[in-house]
Amino acid sequence: MGTKKIFSTTYRQDYFQGYSNGQDPFLQIDSKKNSIAFISGFNSGRMDYEEMNGQISKGIPQRTVTIKVLEEFLLAGLLGLSIEDTDDYTLFQLNIISKWYQSGVEKYDPSQSVYLFEILEEIGIEID
Questions:
Q1: In Å, what is the CA distance from 126 to each residue of 25, 101, 111?
Q2: What are the C-alpha distances in Å from 118 to residues 6, 104, 112, 115?
Q3: What pTM does this model have?
Q4: 52-89 pLDDT, tens per residue?
Q5: Distance between CA 81 and CA 24 in Å, rounded?
Q6: Strand, coil or helix: 6
Q7: What is the pLDDT of residue 128?
Q8: So which domain of life are we looking at (predicted)?
Q9: How far is CA 24 from the centre of its chain?
Q10: Is the separation of the CB atoms in 50 and 22 below 8 Å?
Q11: 82 secondary structure, DSSP code
């Protein structure tokens, strides 16, 4: 495949549509109806999904872990907050979440957290 094709608008659109579909565990790919870009995007999206949520063949979890979810747990660790809302996550997902949270905890600086909490309170956001 030529490099020009990869940088074309059509290729990127197909790739991102495939990636989005790959992130949905309920969708399957029909390689006969889709472009190479779509199939490549789908496979990439599916790999990313399974990295955070486990193999679909082993069941689809009740809650989905995304990068946004992981960043929230990382931020909780950075701020020294405890993790409370972990209901309905699988053991696989909790393992991934705990790694991100622990990474935040390792960088936790109480003086920065106090400063951030003060700023948040000034704009009307309270942290328990």
A1: 36, 21, 17
A2: 47, 20, 10, 5
A3: 0.78
A4: 999 999 999 999 999 999 999 998 898 888 888 899 99
A5: 30
A6: helix
A7: 61
A8: Bacteria
A9: 12
A10: no
A11: P
